[in-house]
Amino acid sequence: MASLIASAAFAGALATMCRRRARASAAARSHGKGQSSHLDALRDDIRNSEDLPSERNLEEAQKLDPMKNRILALRIILGVGVAFGAFQAPWQALPVLIDRKIAADPALPLSESQLKISETFVFVGWLLGAVALHPLMQRLDLKQVLVLLGVTMLFLSVASITGPYVTMLSMTLLCGVRLLHGMCLNIQGVQYMYMQNCFPGYGSQLCAMVNTLYALVAVLMAMSCGTLTLSWDWRPEALIWFGLPMVLGLFVAFPDLLQVVFSLPSALARSPNTSLIGDGESKDKSVQSSGLEEAETMSRSMYRDLCHLSLCFACTVFAYYGLSYSPDSLSTNPFLSAWLINASDILACVLSSRAGAFGRNRAQIWGFLVAGVSLVACALGTVDSVFVISMAILARVALSVVFVTIYVALAEVFPPWCQKTALPTCEIMARVGGCFSPSVGALPVHLSLPLFGLACLLAARASAKLPDKYAPKQF
Length: 475
Prior knowledge:
mainly alpha, Growth Hormone, Chain: A, 21 helices, 76% helix
């Protein structure tokens, strides 16, 4: 309930700010050249927004019907930000909490060691999904990708509680479901980009809100699994945490859900370079905030920026999840160290909401520097040391802030037509970095934390070479 109230308040404030900015931008454009052509394009966008409202820039549509678009903004925040974003926590962490119940199920011939193997298929699928995301985004816009992944995850939530009960194929089907499960986890980056394109200029605040709610959902899920639903059968527990948020997200965020679903087969069948616009429309009208535009050639500077940002993604995920896998190395009481590290994410989300005021790239550089220096200093510490745990918590806060800024950078450094290449590339590098986190996190603290710190310092150097904003004159 608190998350819904916070989301509603944020949506109202966001709609008000969008309306003010829209008035100012409209006044400035009235003195520019080509005013009539811009108004014609705007009328076309508003007319089209009645069919696909959440795909258009709400800042422009605000002038047509403020109340209607305020409600639409709230639906996008609740459906995409909360249901798809914050409730990614169960999809990433719930298997660890319920696998012991699955192993104890007398109807399933699965042991704990087999379930540990199946957990690795989630991470393998996450990497494969990042690879498949690029060709997928060549054919679909961000809205269609979100709907496709959301519907797939809804079916997987049912398959995860039915497939393992098929005799002789329990392990095979469980691994297959979790492989697809991991592939769908790439919805995280897509929902970040979609919300930033719907609410340009509010990337840091939106990402911070989603990450804060994500941390709260993770805490609530852990408390529920350990107390309220501890004696439950694992199947209704999994169905509630996996399936219910997907159902709510699909129907709340997308009023035209059936229309989008029916458009998927033809969109997937067309050539990646096929334009969505008709022969009579100009190329300028095809440039929409959805991220599915006619392909253009990336310049050398754009490739260089993509290399630097993808390196930041790899180092961030490597160090961030490395700390998540290091509770046993930090303290003889792993539950305490894990609680402290995860609780620090909430503080970091509050700080990351101010990253835009401080400067996105400046906050990113300083975040990497603080995390790098803190973790490298742990080479002098020992297990159960207050110094080591304090430095690890400080580094985790800095990395959580960076986790927001790198996704905001995707929308600010690259134009919309380039994001369909930049997002999958960065996600692939992030998943590659994450594959090394568990093994390095299991090393002694004087070895693992300095390695994470060196990666952060390398990312700080790469961040220093990134521009603050996309500059059209460079391309």
